[in-house]
Amino acid sequence: MSLEDHVEELASDLDVDKEEVRRDLENLVEYSVPMDEAKQSLRRKYGGGDSGGSGGTPSSKAIGEVTTDDSNVTVTAVVLTSGRRSIQYNGEQHVIREGQLADESGTISYTAWDGFEGDLEPGETVQFGNAGVREWDGHPELNLGQSTQAEPVEATLDIDAEVGGESALADIEPGDRGITVEVRVLECEEKVIDGRDGETTILSGVLGDESGRLPFTDWEPHDAIEEGASVRIEETFVREFRGAPSVNVSEFSTVTPLSEPVSVTEDAPRMRVREAVESGGQFDVELVGNVIEIRDGSGLIERCPDCGRVVQNGQCRTHGAVDGEDDLRTKAILDDGTATVTVILDDELTERVYGGDLDDAREHARDAMDKEVVADRIAERVVGHEYVVRGSLSVDEYGANLNATEFEEADDDPAARASDFLQGVDA
Ligand SMILES: [Zn+2]
């Protein structure tokens, strides 16, 4: 059914002006309120009772068998996680609950909207009658609303999932809700942003544990979150930031200082290039490959003094004609046989692969009367060599780019590898 069909149906059911219904419905849908829920909300608003349209109680289903073709189902499941989040629609603040449910056949995400009456206590087994099914990112999710009946059940389900949402950073994925982490705050800074109600202060930085590191944002600054602190954070939700997961701390999160410091891994997970690119992004990853080419825009470059973007022929894309400031940068294409990424080296790493600083580069370019000599020397030194690279990988319309924090030539020389290989053959 199109939006217009829903408008027609509601306007005739409720005997209300079509324009009014369309405006309300568009408003709700714009805020990502699912159609079923939006329609029920309007039925409440215009006092039309809740004739959900489906009639009768939908049949019971195993979670693993729920598909996006289902409109309403009844499931009996264990609540794995439950996290609150405040969202705004129809000009009002609403608190929704989100998390995951599990039964013996699998797990499914849910959103509980205004009007849902029932406990969502992690560990409880509950029968959810008449839960709506919506599609999100190709997968079915459950909508628990006013017309969903929740009945606690005495049964013990043999589920293959952990209750409570305690997670290692490496296992967290965008879309996770109601997650608990025990972490060390590695970096933390205050930022002032334009929020819903004017300027607000938030915290952002980096968290670490034994499994890895992830960026975080605390939308309602908690005192216990400060650089160096080890904390337990309950009820977080996870969003995607530049292709990688980012931990979100909210007004509903509980932050408790830990007496024992959380140990943080020194290493980033090592991945094949294809695997890393296909994951959509990695906040901190290690790749190994050969540099096959140095791209344009490497070596001695000029940046806009206002925005820092690279200036070409004295023109900034945003600020027009500017007096560019000299800088050093390298864009190297790394290939490990599975795929390629562009590795971006900042001024310090570029100084090392170039073998000189900014002044040396300026002098070098002046003597040759050509800026390109700087990039040429970098290419001579790195192309054809194997490197271990660590940094933050983003994958977007600009391609797969890794901002490097470390760039080291692989020390195992080919002769040693050949001999390892021969030994392998002998054995
Ligand atoms: Zn600019």
TrEMBL record:
Biological processes, Gene Ontology terms: double-strand break repair via homologous recombination; response to ionizing radiation
Instruction: Cite the residue spans of the region called Disordered.
Output: 1-21, 34-68
Quote the InterPro entries the UniProt record gives.
NA-bd_OB-fold, SOSS-B
For this protein, the record's CDD domains field holds: SoSSB_OBF
Q: Which UniProt keywords apply?
A: DNA-binding
Q: Which GO terms describe its molecular function?
A: DNA binding
Task: Please give the superkingdom of this protein's source.
Answer: Archaea
Protein name as catalogued: Single-stranded DNA binding protein
Q: What is the scientific name of the source organism?
A: Haloarcula nitratireducens
